[in-house]
């Protein structure tokens, strides 16, 4: 599919852009352009274009506003030492978007079209790559039901878009490890629900407990399972790993209530490359406390596209608090982060073919 190129009438001036990307934070600054592709049940995907980032015009009866048919992805583009640009495992993001589409009764977007849309915006807005240390270009592909109707059924019209945001670190610099609040009153997802889909409704459900965590002085909230309220699932937007003194590592299994993270999958492979035993099995909040207090648990790490790999230092809930290891970064967490970032940024060999040069 050819992408029509629409000229931007008033791109951000270079001096203003340079100021914006010098210290962009996360998710607050956006590039000049966006990709848009339309879908109709009778025509399929059509009218691919890249043009100015601008407000969307939606009918008040637009289906997404009433029935929440919406899914999205998140991935990063990196600048390599030779000046080239690269994406990290974009086809995995494309496949996950289609898995989300299945759950929300939405059409698949061809994986190659998804990847090409990401490539188009990176190359178009290459001047927006941030100069801050560790900076990257965060891409947000998303799809929503655009048909105007009132009636509970899957829509027949959709839009797929990609916007881009120059970003620095997800968590503020200088924080050695994040602090976690255990949510006892709220759950993120239930069996048979949409927990494995990357859809906005899941994140909407996490906002009250996340606000509760922040009000109590913590960085993130961890959710337990919806049935027994004892098994650790994930954070508001990150998967978890637990590293033990016997050299084994555990991560909660993908049972339909946890998002199958791309970073999670990558870390499982890197752990195997290290010769460590990685088990995908249930792990309870009570066991987490006991293992931390006994010293059997050495490290807990959170991972996701935005934050990459982040150490968890403290956990608190209504029953009290406990500390992981020394409360700071652990050796394995640091090693995995360094290895993953080096591959993403073209500073180390890519034995698994994860990096896609643009």
Please, could you describe this protein's structure?
The protein is α+β, with helices and mostly antiparallel strands and 358 residues long. It folds into 2 domains: 4-167, Aminotransferase class 4, branched-chain amino acid transferase, N-terminal domain (D-amino Acid Aminotransferase, Chain A, domain 1, 2-Layer Sandwich); 178-343, D-amino Acid Aminotransferase, Chain A, domain 2 (Alpha-Beta Barrel). It is 26% helix and 29% strand. The chain is built from 8 helices and 18 strands. The strands form 2 sheets. Strands 1, 2, 3, 4, 5, 6, 7, 8 and 18 form a 9-stranded mixed beta sheet that branches. The longest helix has 16 residues, at 200-215.
Helix content class: 25-40%
Largest beta-sheet characterization? 9 strands, mixed
End-to-end separation in angstroms reads 18 Å
Can you count the beta strands? Answer: 18
Query: Nearest-angstrom radius of gyration?
Result: 21 Å
Which terms would index this structure?
alpha+beta; 26% helix; D-amino Acid Aminotransferase, Chain A, domain 2; D-amino Acid Aminotransferase, Chain A, domain 1; globular; BCAT_family; 358 residues; 18 strands; 9-stranded mixed sheet; single chain; 2 domains
